Design the sequence.
């Protein structure tokens, strides 16, 4: 038997094509023709399973529907959370009994609420940090503008040395940055 060529590339065949075709042909004709051992056909034929790969697995567990709490329960849970972020097991059991909830429900609610609280506080801290950065930048710009508009007080040392006096009055950022000669050199 000869394997069919690769579609689009005439005359090109691979050895695995012939083996695959032979396995399929032998499976279809197994009750009618001679039995061929699986290991003789392909090294992978003996370990290969027939059927859907997931059909032999245990069925997945059904997901429990989301529990909804009453407004009164949520209000009491929130009040308690505001006062106390963590509950001891005895406190949790007492609260669960008072709210007609299970211990696990109270425990899970507090875990979820702490996660939400951490995220909210992190977002608030980030917003405060950005606000502080914007304020600091604004104050720095204001201070810089003031230094540009106010002339520097004369330095007594520079008053007696003409070179230092010229350097002290040099403002490269000013609009009028023409070079002026200094007398007395």
Sequence:
């Amino acid at each position: 038997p000869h394997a069919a060529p690769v579609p689009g590339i005439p005359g090109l065949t691979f050895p695995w094509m012939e083996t695959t075709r032979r396995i399929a042909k032998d499976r279809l004709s197994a009750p009618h023709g001679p039995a061929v051992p699986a290991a003789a056909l392909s090294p992978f034929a003996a370990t290969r399973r027939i059927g859907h790969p997931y059909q032999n697995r245990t069925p997945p567990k059904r997901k429990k529907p989301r529990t909804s709490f009453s407004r009164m329960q949520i209000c009491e849970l929130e009040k308690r959370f505001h006062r106390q972020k963590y509950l001891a097991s005895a406190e949790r059991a007492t609260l669960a009994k008072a709210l007609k909830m299970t211990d696990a429900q109270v425990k899970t609610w507090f875990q979820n609420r702490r996660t939400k609280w951490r995220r909210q506080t992190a977002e608030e801290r980030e917003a405060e940090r950005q606000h502080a950065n914007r304020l600091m930048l604004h104050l720095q710009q204001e201070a810089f503008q003031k230094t540009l508009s106010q002339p520097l007080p004369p330095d007594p040392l520079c008053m007696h040395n003409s070179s230092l006096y010229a350097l002290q009055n040099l403002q490269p950022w000013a609009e009028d940055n023409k070079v002026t000669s200094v007398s007395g050199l």
Summary: The chain is about 55% helix and 0% strand. Residues 128 and 134 are 10 Å apart (CA to CA). The helical segments are 15-28, 38-41, 71-83, 89-98, 103-149, 156-160, 162-169.
